[in-house]
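cache lookup: miss for this entity combination. No prior model stored, computing from scratch. Input as submitted by user K.M.:
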Amino acid sequence: MNMRIPILKLHDCLLISIQWELDDQTALQFQEDLLHKIHETSARGVVIDFTSIDFIDSFIAKVLGDVISMSKLMGAKVVITGIQPAVAITLIELGIRLEEVMTALDLEKGLEKLQRELGD
Amino acid sequence: MRKKIFQYVQSHSDEILIEWIELMRTEADERAFQAMSDQMFTKTSSEFIQLVMSNFSDSEEKFQKRAVDFSEKIVRLGWPLAMITEGLRVFGQIVEQGMQRSGAIDQHSYIDFTAEINNWVFPMYKTITEAYTTSWERTVSLQKIALQELSAPLIPVFDKISVMPLVGTIDTERARQIMENLLEGVVSHRAEVVLIDITGVPVVDTMVAHHIIQAAEAVRLVGAKCTIVGIRPEIAQTIVNLGINLEDVTTTSTMKKGVEQALAATSRQIVGVQE
Amino acid sequence: MDSSVKIINEWDIVAARQLGRNVAKELGFGTVDQARITTAISELARNIYLYAGQGEITIEKVENGAKKGLTIISCDEGPGIPDLRKVMEDGFSTSGGLGAGLPGVKRLMDEFSIESTPGEGTLIKSVKWLR
């Protein structure tokens, strides 16, 4: 019943658009898949888009925060994009700050930000 | 007996009114007089007495409606509720004393009279206070809505730059409203930088600062940058004295500086045009 | 109309928040409050799954005079919480998560109460009022 989240490669970046509600298993599977893909492709940047996600709880936030730190360790910068206002508010009220994460309004701006960060 | 009271009240209505106003002036709450002119006071008083008298002649429904109309009016005029309850008591007192003087009641019929007066006055108390509180509650809820509407607009000033001026005291309810407006606005205006102007916020205490920090963090999560502008000297002092940590939030003193920084952050600047 | 979801495995967490989201939507909550309610349910359901093994999440509509709202009741017969004050402190977590759990739920909702007896279980009630 697990659906895997597709990870696309664009030049030296990886693009992920999360399209449906994350359950725990899918989130953990995604963590695994992304790290493997970074290793495999030597990607330098990752953009994860959350436009279609309408809620994130503390577990998913933890998995997400972890995968961002892990990616950093592997030399890939992560930008998350498209966090909905309602999601941002609940995260803040939960006390989750996702510090040190780069953010952008949408996929396009996220990619631009990543390019700037990578110095292209 | 009811008829007797009614007849007395009817035939002495002018005297009762004058005596009532006289008594109320000495007994009632000062606020009632400050709220309006002498003339207005007399006019409203006579309306009140008429309302009380109409309770004899009008049907229940008609009286109810009159009471509601009158209550709405006095709520608007700022008459306190105590003025009404006190007014009813004084009215009863005047009628009682008047009827005693004129010999309409004696010791023998006094019990009858009190029973009748009570039957008459108590339901009226209930109707009028209910009508009064209902109009009052409605006024309060309307004001609450008005306050919410005043809350906080997000104004796009340049491409990618929006401003949110905050005015007045910020409580938890307003803070939530502000946060929602702010984030929805950032997303719909596609703002990259938001300037929150707190020039109009009179007091920045730990709670207000906490709300502002939360708002700034939420803005970062949706993918924009947030700067707090309008930090006045006394606000800077209270922030530091209270030990509030605003270090993770960009702040500047004036809107002008804020706009310059915002333009710089989006790789733009304002230049003069050569003639 | 009350409805509840038994929490036995991880998928039930998804079912519980789905139920909560539907009821919240039906009651006319805005998107932000829908997210708050869904997230609170998710936290509570996960607590049941992680600490109690099994339990139940019940969603009720409530009315108090002119106010309407939604109540989340989380009930389990797990080991209970020995030190309530401690779990309500920010940053406290026994599972290695972010420790946002219960204080987070309290912040997301308008009302929050918790009863817990070690060895018998935990009952948490929280209400969100429609604005």
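stored under new cache key. Residues 7-118 of chain A form a domain with the Transcription Regulator spoIIAA fold (CATH 3.30.750.24).
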